Amino acid sequence: MTAMPFAGHARPVRAVAAELVRRGHDVRVYTGRSYVDMFEQVGARGIPWQVAPDLDERDLAATFPRMRGKKGFRQVLVNLEDLFVGTAPAQCADLLAAYDDEPWDLLAGDPMALGTRFAAEHLGSRWASVSPIAVWLPGEGIPPTGLGLTPGRGPLGRLRDAALGAASGAGTAVLTRRYQRTRRRAGLRRDHETFATMWYSPQLVVAAGSPGLDYPRADLPGHVRFVGDLTDDGAPAPAAVLPDWWDDVVRGSVPVVHVTQGTANVDPRDLILPALEALAEADVLVVVGLGHRTDPLPGPLPANARVAPMVPYAELLPRTSVMITNGGYGGVLQALRHDIPLIVAGGDLDKPEVAARIGWHGAGINLRTGTPHAAAIAAAYRAIDTEPSYRATAARLGAELRSLGGTRAAADLLESHLP
After folding, report:
1. Residues with Cβ < 8 Å from 112, sequence gap 6 or more?
2. Cα angle 243-249-250, degrees, rounded to a multiple of 5
3. Where are the domains of the chain?
4. Phi, psi of 117 (to 5 degrees)
5. pLDDT tens digits along 358-393
6. What is the Cα–Cα distance from 273 to 373, expressed in whole angstroms?
7. Fold designation for 7-232+404-416
8. Distance separating alpha carbons of residues 230 and 106, to the nearest angstrom
């Protein structure tokens, strides 16, 4: 298996690896050095990046200097060019060396670890994608991915989506060309993949999420199989380290609102501080997970706020009424699996697409920006608190996610793909 060395990628892949190990399979995982131990804790064997430039997700600019100071579209572009596409030939070299050392029967890869595709093609190896990120491929009747748009209505709306789809293809042509040049560097011939499809195995895609979370479509390829939430591996969890204020959550009588800004963009002024301001006078308990990269928050906290670097979701989410999030896909799936409606401030990367779908389905509110004002957050919370349909839709999507089988279904599909 392969996993990009990011928490939101490695943890779902680890859950699938753990299930495969429980079934008696010999699992090796190629990932960054900082995540090797995490895989070995569940019985897999870690293979660290060697030729590929190892990285620290907390400081990507140290390895990829062009990322320094980048946000929004510029961050997306540099991420794709330097990190995800640029490291693929070196990942491929590492994987080919691992195969020479000990051949595998099946290669199951994180789609953003593009070296997986390159190695599989070199070897003629059977391979599958195990995607912790949303698999939202272009299709008929839906807007192109990346713009955070919802499907147009009526003839004019369909015309808009078709025109935007054509323009999007032209706009991502530069990245497709970069991909083709990178293939040549890796010793591979040109193929017919586009920027939208080059990440995924044409044989099998095991995808986190559910069909119901995407826009309605009838053209999803049959080899794309949704399996729900991949963060729940079914293994006994280690005892959680709970904050000293945890009794306020357990014994409180007011709704719990969880605020998370993820681990990539960590300026608390983007979402955390406006959310605290928005809910400072509300009759709720606000629980903020900062992540390990965010500095302590400035100034005194509102009386109804509790803050910790990390908050154990297994204990928190069953007690959570609403989640305010930057739209990280794994966190959104976990919230929905617990029937929690969402307020989403999706700023960049795939997050505007997550926010758009949550808003379009009615499982929460799309704030349409990654840096919302406190007034917008307060209004969104009042709407969710007073309109039962948001919670009902979140519960409907949650039931679908739970029904798809999670890591067990993922392992079933990978086993069925073995030679």
Report:
1. 4, 9, 84, 133, 199
2. 105
3. 7-232+404-416, 246-403
4. -60, -45
5. 999 999 999 999 999 999 999 999 999 999 999 999
6. 10
7. Rossmann fold (3.40.50)
8. 20
